[in-house]
Amino acid sequence: MLKKIRVGLLSALFLLSGNIFAAESVQPVIQQKVDLNTADIATLDAELIGVGPKKAEAIFKYRTDNGSFKTIDELKKVPGIGDKLFEKNRDKITVSQPVQPNTVAETPASAEQPTSTETH
């Protein structure tokens, strides 16, 4: 009888410990968005729904010819990308904003006032 209780307790402990370890190993999957302004052809092909190599090349070419995408809606201007394909990917895409150049004006050395060197 005591042996059956021990086996039952060990079995329960084993099952509970397995669930605890399984819970620790579950990692949430965080889907990163595809940046239309930085993604290469392979990434566009692999990550976007309904986009294969040819459409990925068209997106890349559009960006090369027209500059950075300003909004995700601009993707619909790419030949072969219609409303349906855009809607399938709306939540998967983003556009980064171009980095603005430093607008702090530096005083050029030639514009500095010379110090007085007069001696009395």
Protein topology:
Blueprint: H1 2-25, E1 34-35, H2 41-47, H3 53-66, H4 83-89, E2 93-94
Helix pairs in contact: 2-3
Would you give an account of this structure?
With 120 residues, this protein is mainly alpha-helical. The chain has a domain at 42-94: Tex RuvX-like domain-like (DNA polymerase, domain 1, Orthogonal Bundle). Helices cover 43% and strands 3% of the residues. The chain has four helices and two strands; from the N terminus they run H-E-H-H-H-E. The protein has helices at residues 2-25, 41-47, 53-66, 83-89; strands spanning 34-35, 93-94. It has a two-stranded parallel ribbon. Helix 2 packs across helix 3 (53-66). The chain is elongated and about 80 Å long. The chain starts with a helix and ends in a 26-residue tail after the last strand. 12% of the residues are buried. The mean pLDDT is 79.
